Structures are given as structure tokens and as C-alpha cells.
Amino acid sequence: MLDLAPFHALIRDRCGILIQGNREPALTQAVRARVAALGIAPGGYYARLAASREEFQELVNLLTVNETYFFREPEHIRFVVDTLAPRCLAARCRTAPVRILSAGCSSGEEPYSLVMALLDRYGEGVAELFSFHAADIDSLVLGKARLGRYSEFSFRNTPPDVRARYFVKDGQDSLLADRVKRLVRFHRINFLDTALPLFLHDCDIIFFRNVSIYFDDATRRAIQKNLAALLHEDGALLYGTTETLANDFDILPMAREQELFYFTRNPLALGERAFPPAAGPSPTGLDTGPAEPLVLCLLAPGPSAGETAAAEGARAEPGTPEAGIAEARRLLADKRHAQALARLEAVLAGQPQHAEAGVLRAHALLHLKEHAAAHAQARALLDADAWSVDALMLLGLAAKWAGRPAEAVGWFKQAVYARPGCWPAQYALADLHRRAGETALAQRFYRATLQLLEEGGREHGIAFLPLELPVQEIRFLCRHQLAKLPHEPGPAGQR
Question: What's the pLDDT at 206?
Fold first, then answer.
């Protein structure tokens, strides 16, 4: 059997792609295909691959994951059209076109979506007002992008009127209008290379969406440094919605506008610096009806909640708030939620602003199915501390258990915004999107959860909320669901 370990290292070092888990079979299949195409012995293939840039490109073309479609994550496209583009045009004073780069462009749906959206806003003047570049490491998908021929798979989120304006039917496929195609220049580029082409410098807007999940931290950091070097002083770098906070490496400041986070050299020139999330949920369109309670999970292997509470209680002076909280934790660990609630309310009667007692009270109320009271307690906690991940998690759970999944998604997203490492919120989002049939989003959040757990999972930001399952079980559940979720048809990227 061919040893794939050297292939893993070579691919990671040269282009950053991480081959692991369910991507292992793809590497095996790709190597076998190239060995057959070359007509050589399997044992000699690694030497050929390491020595030949052309052969390495052939293998990479078989490994990239090119799942994308037009108008994916439309909130980003609206943000460009309604906010970033007018701002950049004003800053440029029309002395130079606004420069837009789609990095990791796959088969072209992303840059073409931007062109179509801007054509709808600015008409044929787009050709003078904007310049569009798109780049990917996969030379085969770039060929498809330049051709502009797409199957029905690419139109899952395309408004019918947009499709009618910019495409013509050709058999089973649709052809993109030449007036759109000629505006985008495509390039084969590895963004892990430190010497990127000069013509890509000084970009006003860079999209690097739904790509970084395939890289490890070191690679993502290196790529962001390279993209930062391409960015205009007041430019904006946008990642996929669920990727942004996981790519916060202190290389570029992060800004927030219209519930979207992005990176920029100069947050004050564009939007607002990142600040505590608003106290209300953001709309998501998810509506799946009542769902069973989400089981929260232990942050790391260690003593049980009952054991921890017993130790704390032994140290606490009788009659103090600490003793009452320790007793409440013991009762919660024993599932005696009503008794725990009574202890906690006694603590809060003396100290109404006691954060830990408030979190535990909301937790007990949830388990007693008093969702409205739990929501009110969590909102009070959030009013006192807008960064409280405990409060945001509780609000998400209250909404989910009350059968309001769209609201729950909004709260869990805010928990992730407040604390990028909050993997329980990522896991909750994966669960909600899976139940709503949003396969791609569910897969993304399950992978994000796994990645955070592999990194230790300790930067979760949850201070007081009791959690009940071991990390190992959450890892298993994530992998189990990823294996069960359907893989949408189409070639193997945007990615």
C-alpha cells in the first residue's frame, strides 16, 4: 500500500490544503488517477510529483473542493453594492476604478455575482468604475470560469429575473452573457506564495469566502498576511460568515457593520470597530417548528459539576452566597431543578446583580420549561454585560426550546461574534441548520466545532453555565453528522 504521509506534507507545505478525515479517500483516488494517467509504478509517483510543478498542479486540480453557486451568502453582496462600493467610489473620486478581488474564486460564480449585482446598480458604467480580478489555485475550474457555462446546480440562489437578464439557455446548461464575462480577469494564483503579482495590489475589496476552513491555523495566518499586503489602506477583506472570527489573528483590525464582520487596515475609515453584539436576534429565515432541547456539552475532561460544587461548598462559609450557589450546583447536577431554583432565588434576593446566580437561575428555569422566565433572566444578564456569552447561550437555548429556531440562530451567532472560540454555540448552530435542511451551513458549523475542539476548546467564553457531556462525545457527534449529511452533486472547492 502506498504511504500517503509524504503527500500530505508536500501538499500542505506548497499550497496549504489540509488532507484529513473524510478527504483521505479523495487523495488516494487522485494519486491513483495520476499514476494511471502517467503509466508509471506507484512507488515512483512521489518523486515525479515533488520535482514537477506541472504534475503538482495536475494533482491539486483533483483535490480542490469546488462547491459554490451564484449569490452565495447574499448579505455580503448586498453589503458591497449598498455600502462598500459607494464608499470606495467616493474615496477614489473616480480617479481610478474600485478594485475588487475574488480570492479562491473556484468556477467563477462569486466574481460574476458581484459583477451582475453592480451592473444592476450602476449599469454599463461598471466597466469604468470597477475592475474585477479573480484567482484560484485550480487551473481546471479557472477554465470553466472563463467559459461561463453553468449547470442548474449553480443557480440555487439566483433570482429568476437576474438569470433572465444575464444568461441564455444552451441545452441543459446556461451561458453567461459576454458583457459580464469580459469584466472579470482570472488568474491562477497560490495565495500561500509570498510574492503575489503586483497587479493585485491596492485592492479595495477582497473576498476570501468559504476557503479557509480547509487550512490549518498556520496556513490561514500566512494567507491573511499575504492578502493584507494586497489591501488598500481603507480596503475591506471579507471571509465567509462563519469563518471571519476564526481568522482573527491580530493581523488586521476587525470592523462590524450591518451585523457583518470584516477585516480592514483602518476600521474608522470604513465602519465601526467591533463592539458588543446588539441585544436582539438577527433574522435568518429559519423556521422549523419546535425541536427537542439541545444537550450542552462539557468544556473539557475534568471533575463533574457535582464534584466541583461539593469542593466549592466545602470552602464556602455557611450562609454566604457562595455556599448557596455551591448547594444549587449540587442540586442541578442531581437534576433537582426546582430545589436549585429556590436556593438561587434566595441568593438573588440579597444580591440581585449576582451574575453566577443569575446564569444558574436561567439554566434551572429552562429545565423547568419556564422559557419566558428564563429568557427574561438572560436578557437582564445581557443588559448588565453585553459581552456575556453565558447570557447569549441561554437566550439561544430559550428560543430553541420554545420552538423559535430562527431567533435561536440569531442568539447563537451573537455568541460566536462575542467569542470566536465558543464551540458550544457553533455546535448549536450546526444542529439548527441540520434540522432546517441547510446542509452546507450545518457542515460548516460542525467542521468549525471540530476545529475548535482540536485546538483545545478552552477559549469558549462560558463562565458559569453548567454543561453535561464530554468533549469526546461532541467530537463523535460532529463526525457522525458530517458522515450522514448528504454531499451535494458536482465537482469536488469554493470552495
Answer: 98
